[in-house]
Each structure stands twice: as structure tokens, then as C-alpha cells.
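User: My collaborator sent over this chain with a note saying "see what the structure looks like." That's all I know about it. Can you take a look?
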Amino acid sequence: MLYFRGCTAREKQMGIVRATEQLLTLAGIDYHIHEDEKCCGSVLLRTGFEKEAQKQIEKNTEFLKGEKIITSCAGCYKTLKEDYEGLDVIHISQLLDELIKNNKLNPVKQNLKVTYHDSCHLARHCNVFDEPRNVIESVANLVEMENIRRESLCCGAGGGVKSAYYRIASQMAESRIDQVNATGCKTLVTACPFCRLNLENDEIEVIDLTEFLIRYGGLNEGK
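Assistant: Without extra context I'll predict from the sequence alone. Here is the result:
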């Protein structure tokens, strides 16, 4: 399997990469990475640079075709799955759900309440709702926010908004954090590096699904 890390995890959220690689190793998954990995082209596509994105897609397809691809990023997952042709791609949340169901990973249930943020690309665009929730509920008690699944609020980071309209992106994140606070939970889990980055704040712990499983799942103790 090829682990496609994605730009945000690879450059800004290395904790996600480390946690993902640790989980793959614990589950006995034979995987590799490309050290010269390039952007999937998602940002180019979402901001209107379609010709440039197509060139990127053509270059990437040369080394991605024939691989079983794992992604950390919801944006990468949507792009590789829907904008490329003929790729075999799975999001890490889907893979973790499979591994837990098949007893390749055996988390320990904790007395912990957490809430989950559905990212736009993973949930609304690709209909991945249950798998990350299944992973969370193998470890903790999930308390849902007001807006979830297809009706989830955008974190504000996608589509170039954070780069072009930083204030709007911050306001959108604040609205989502208000909903987190309403649940009474002190931990927010997400399955997208963009969301993790934009939702970070001083009030609660914001953590990727992979980091959550490593930190709270008791997996190391069970090996």
C-alpha cells in the first residue's frame, strides 16, 4: 500500500503522519511512501486553476496508478477518488474501521467524552460518515454537535478561503468551536488536516483521528 501523506500533513501536521505510520505498523500493514510526493492538485482545482491542476494530475498518475492508496487528507481523498481516473484509494478513517472490525487493531474503551467534526470533503462530498465515528466509539463516548454529517458546518479552511479571506475562515472556525463547547466535550476529533489546523484553539484539544487512536486507544500497551 502507498501512504499518500498530503501537503498539509506532510508539511504542517507531521503528528498526523507519525500517528498514521505508527498505526499501520501496529496493524502489520506493508506500506511505503514516495519521498518526492507532490500535491494532489486539490487546491488548484478548488480555486479555479483547472489547467494547472490537470497537469499535476497527469504527472501524479504516472506513479499512483496500480497502487492501493491510503490518504490522511479528506481533500486528497476526494481528489484522488473523483478527479483522477482508475485509482484505488481509501481514507485512513475507512481503513482504521476495517482494521478494528477485523481485530488487527484492538483499542481499549476509555471513560472519555469527545465530539467529532465532519469535514466537507470527507462527509458532504464523499458520504463518509460512519467509519470515523466507529473508530471513535471503539475508544470513547461520542457526543454529537448540533450540525453533523451532511449538515456539518465548514471549518473555514477549504476552497482557498483561509488564504484569501483569513478573517472569514477564523469566524467560521469560531462558530464551530461554539458548537463543540455546547457539547461539554474538551476533545474535538477530526479526520482532515485542514480542519485540524484551522480549528486549533486554546479552549479545547483538537486532534486528528489517527492521533486520537494513538493517544487514547491503549494500543501500545496491548502490543
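A starting point for your reply to your collaborator: The mean pLDDT is 91.
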